[in-house]
User: Fold Peptidase C1A papain C-terminal domain-containing protein from Brassica cretica.
Amino acid sequence: MDKRKRKKIGEDPPADVAKEAPGTKHERDQDANRSYGAGGGHKKGGKRPKTGDASTTKSTHRLTPSDDNYPKDCGDDKIYWKEWSEVDRVVREVSNQKYKDTCWAHATKKNIEARLKIQFNLDVSLSVDHLYHGIAKKMSTDAIKNFDELKNFLKNEGIIQEKDCECEKRTNKKDPCSKKIEAKKVGVLKIEEFITTKVVSEEELIQLVKVAPVMVSLLATDDFLAHKGEGIFYGDKRSKEKTQGNHLVLVIGYNSIDGQHYWIIQNTWGVKWGDKGFAKIARKISRGKGQHSLFSEIVYPVISGVGGLA
Assistant:
C-alpha cells in the first residue's frame, strides 16, 4: 500500500460553471479551433507578429473591501495571493515547445509535478517525451482534438520519470520505454482522474488555484503570441484576430495591481515570451462590462498516490 497516500486535490469539478450565451463569437472561435497544441511561433516562412507590451500602471496601493475596484468574485478570500512559483520546486523552469503543437504534454507534465510536490512533498522530474510519444502514436498530428486520449493514457498506462525515459531510442518497431515498464524496471505514476470543465466561473477557478496550479485553455492569438513584458494581457485588440488554435497554460496564482485583477500563468514558449516565460492575464472582472473570461476550459489531474515513483 502506498504510505504516501493523501487526500485528493480537486476531486470534483467546479459546481457552478457560468456559460456564455450560445453562439457568441468567442464560443464559435473556441469551437472552430477545438484542438490543443499551438506551437510558440509561426510556421517556417510565416511572419511573426509585432511584439507588444500590454503595460499597466504599477502601484503598491492595496485595495480594501471598501474600495470601488475591490473584486466581488473572491468572497471572503484575500485578493492578494503569493503565487505557487514562490513555493520551492512547485513550479519548475520554463520549457519551450518551439514549433511543435505539444503544449498539452508540457503543461500536463508540469501540473502533475506541481501536485506531487504539494500533496506528497515528492520532487521528481517527469518525462514530457514519454507522455508525448505514448499518445502521438495514436494520432495523426501533434495537437490533440480532445482530452480523451490524454486521460486514458495517464489513467491506464501512466507517466515515468525523465531519468528513466529512453524515447530518443524509439523507432517504428521498437519502444524501449514500454519494454522497461512491462518488465517493471521503472516506476510509473497513474492518475486517478483527469478533470475537464468549461470555464467560466473564475470564482471557482480562484478556489482551485489556491489548492494547486491548474491548466487552462485559451486562444493562441497573434496578440498573445507577441506578448512581452510585465504588463497585463487584456485580450485581442483587433476584431479579426488570427489564431493558431487552443493553447494550454498553467495558472499558478492570481493578484491585483491598482484595481486591475489578473491571473499569473506559466507558458511553454520559452523565456523570451512574456515576462521570462510567465505572464499576467486579465481576469474577467477587469476586462470590462460584458466581456468573457479569456479562459475557455479548466483542466487538471486528480492524484491519490505516488505510484511507483517513490
